[in-house]
């Protein structure tokens, strides 16, 4: 068996699971309890005086479990339908494996350097967005808040309106070239039978 000590757990066929002896079941339970008890030992800061970044005793135990293949075996026990009797032992072992880590550290660890770069890109984009919003606000404060539809009134000297007064022109100066006295008046409709042929 590739598992060495874990032989009773790795039988591939259902017949082997049914033929498992009581001794094998006891051995499996003892192995799981041993792993749980080893992981349950609290850290002792006075004994663990290593360099910063050095692996703690707990981390080294986890690495040894990984090298031996015990983590794969625990995943198998947690997911196998026929091994539900070990579910609480496996759950307790997994919770003890992650007892020193916070969820934020675990999430960042799974992303690796790409995740850190993604975080930096996100921060840069956020600062650029804030800068753009500030510039937009500054531009909005500089221009008037309401658009005046009143383009101004102009007096056209030399062009008389009704009476003796000069014409008052209420449109923009660019419309002055097309000015006629009929501007703004409804054209008179000529009945069809009186229209020129």
Summarize, please.
The protein is mainly alpha-helical.
How does this model look, in words?
The protein is mainly α and 197 residues long. It has six helices and two strands; from the N terminus they run ααααααββ. It has a two-stranded antiparallel sheet with strand order 1-2. Strand 1 and strand 2 form a beta hairpin. Helix 4 (70-79) packs across helix 5 (87-97).
Main features:
single chain, 197 residues, mainly alpha, two-stranded antiparallel sheet, 6 helices, 49% helix
Structural class assignment? mainly alpha
Which strand-content bin applies to the residues? 5-15%
Dominant shape: elongated
| Spatial order of strands in the largest sheet | 1-2
Please bin the fraction of helical residues: 40-55%
Average pLDDT, all residues: 77
- Give helix and strand order, one letter per element, not per position: HHHHHHEE
Compute the gyration radius: what is it? 43 Å
Number of strands: 2
Number of helices: 6
Q: How far apart lie the N and C ends?
A: 111 Å
In terms of per-residue confidence, which ranges show pLDDT below 50 for 5 or more consecutive residues? 1-5, 11-15
Largest sheet: 2 strands, antiparallel
Protein name: TIM protein
Keywords: Cell cycle, Nucleus
Organism: Menura novaehollandiae (superb lyrebird)
Main location: nucleus
């Amino acid at each position: 068996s590739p598992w060495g000590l874990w032989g009773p757990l790795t039988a591939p066929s259902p017949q082997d699971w049914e033929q498992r002896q009581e001794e094998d079941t006891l051995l499996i339970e003892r192995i799981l309890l041993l792993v749980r008890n080893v992981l349950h030992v609290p850290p002792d800061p006075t004994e663990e005086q290593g360099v910063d970044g050095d692996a703690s005793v707990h981390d080294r135990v986890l690495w040894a479990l990984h090298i031996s293949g015990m983590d794969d075996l625990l995943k198998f026990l947690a997911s196998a339908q026929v091994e539900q009797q070990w579910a609480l032992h496996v759950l307790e072992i997994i919770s003890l494996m992650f007892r020193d880590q916070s969820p934020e550290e675990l999430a960042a660890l799974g992303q690796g350097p790409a995740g850190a770069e993604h975080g930096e890109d996100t921060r840069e984009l956020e600062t650029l967005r804030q800068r753009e919003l500030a510039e937009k606000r500054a531009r909005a404060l500089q221009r008037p808040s309401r658009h005046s539809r009143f383009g101004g009134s102009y007096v056209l000297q030399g062009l008389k309106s009704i009476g003796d007064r000069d014409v008052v022109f209420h449109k923009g100066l660019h419309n002055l070239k097309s000015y006629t006295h009929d501007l703004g008046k409804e054209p008179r409709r000529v009945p069809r039978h009186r229209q020129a042929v």
